[in-house]
Predict the structure.
Amino acid sequence: MPTLTYRDALNQALREEMQRDPNVLLMGEEVGVYQGAYKVSRGLLEEFGPKRIVDTPIAELGFAGIGVGAAMGGLRPVVEFMTWNFALLALDQIINAAAKMLYMSGGQIRVPIVFRGPNGAALQLGSQHSQAWESWIAHIPGLKVVAPATPADAKGLLKSAIRDNNPVIVLEGEMLYNLKGDVPDGEHIVPIGKAEIKREGSDVTLVCHSKTLTVAQKAADQLAEQNISAEVLDLRSLRPLDEAAILGSVKKTNRAVVVEEGWPHSGIGAQVVDLIQRDAFDDLDAPVQRVTQADVPMPYNKFLERAAKASPEKVVAAARKVLYLDGD
């Protein structure tokens, strides 16, 4: 199985889907001549030409709206935002047009569009460029939301998103583009709405997604050194959520820690905890713990930024708490 970076896996998905379906096009800032801010669209302009790889002005509301109109007209646009922080300017089209059109047209008008780009914090980009958008976007009915954590999932979920007849949000971890992993050749599809156990365990479930998969895996390694067996469940899809996978894992381990990149208030983790306490309450041996970003705008100072982010050490402490190993 070939080893690819996360960015090359996304590139492969785009190329394969554009070869398969002439209605698929990519548009966004610097996706063509510059080959993408993160080089995800490298080589696509040369292969598919400027009518299908479209460089846009710095006008997120405008080109998001063009994409929605193109989708309503029968095309399958993939709209790239240089960062999801810039998508704040396009939310009217994403939420009030793309997400609602099928409902408001009485099922007559579908909007098969993908909005994708880097999400969350990188390194010292300041608070305005370091926001995790999961809970904002997943709150909206009419949108599907995925957050791949590995190159294989990046390819498989993007291909599924492009083929879906509904608007799909693809949140790509900004620190994941150089991550390498095995990626199947050809027709590799990851269904939207399906979580995956990335590591089997018996003592505690670590629920995570996107960049926090790495955090959870490192925490699981540290817990293993303490003879604690942690199961790592990667959500992959945030809307719809794989409720059966979450409940199945918690019923096996009887304890859970939810790890996320966003802020604690009204976060994705709160949704997961609600599910667990509602449908797996009798299986719990301890209250569910959450590990999130600190409830502050992301600091620019690198030491404060590091302190604000979810970390393996914070996850280990939360796991030990649900196992009552520190006197609590």
